[in-house]
Design brief:
194 residues, 3 domains, 7 helices, 3 strands, 4% strand
Length: 194
């Protein structure tokens, strides 16, 4: 059963209780309740239920006296009932502890996941390294051969197709064609390299 809130019995509340007991317009049932509180107060009662203060305010207001609850409670303290928390079962405690441990482990793994490598440093393959070097060397060799071949085509092609005999003009045609192939090849090399 839930206990209700109680308030400290102050002189203001005592005086209002006495006024209610002395007033003839208040019902006998309410008078008996208020008289019992005043008699118990003599025995050392220091708190009364909040419901009684609310009933006292209603009774006095009905009798024609304007007494509000906040005026009665001025200088008083509210005593809230303590809540009885049931004890948890051992199975529940064990399960909660297991879940807390799992959550802490997941959080730790997430924090150090980017720091600690998944594989050991001794776990390497020479074959993969050789294949990677082979791919890079092939790309560089292809790059150099393509640019040199484009230069040679521009140099010799200008002589054969255009009839240019001046060495400076042949070098210019070769360099222009070589540079064009150089930048085109560089673009594709950078774009497709991982």
């Amino acid at each position: 059963m839930a206990r209700e809130s109680e308030v400290k019995l102050t002189d203001t509340i005592r005086k209002a209780l006495q006024d209610a007991v002395d007033d003839s317009r208040i019902s006998n049932m309410d008078k008996m309740t208020f008289k019992n509180i005043l008699n118990e107060e003599g025995c050392g009662q220091k708190t009364i239920p909040f419901k009684t203060v609310r009933n006292l305010s209603k009774a006095l207001t009905t009798a024609g006296k304007k007494v509000y609850i906040h005026e009665l409670l001025k200088g008083s303290d509210v005593h809230l009932p303590s809540v009885d928390i049931p004890k948890r079962s051992p199975e529940l405690e064990a399960r909660l502890e297991r879940l807390r441990t799992e959550a802490a482990n997941r959080e730790y793994e997430q924090m150090v996941g980017s720091i600690v490598p998944k594989s050991s440093p001794l776990d390497f393959s020479i074959g993969e390294d050789v294949k990677a070097i082979n791919r890079q060397m092939t790309a560089v060799f292809n790059f150099v051969i393509t640019v040199v071949a484009a230069f040679m085509f521009g140099y010799k092609g200008s002589e054969l197709l255009l009839g240019v005999s001046n060495v400076a003009q042949k070098l210019t045609y070769g360099l222009v064609l070589g540079m064009a192939v150089f930048f085109a090849d560089l673009y594709f090399l950078v774009k497709h390299t991982k």
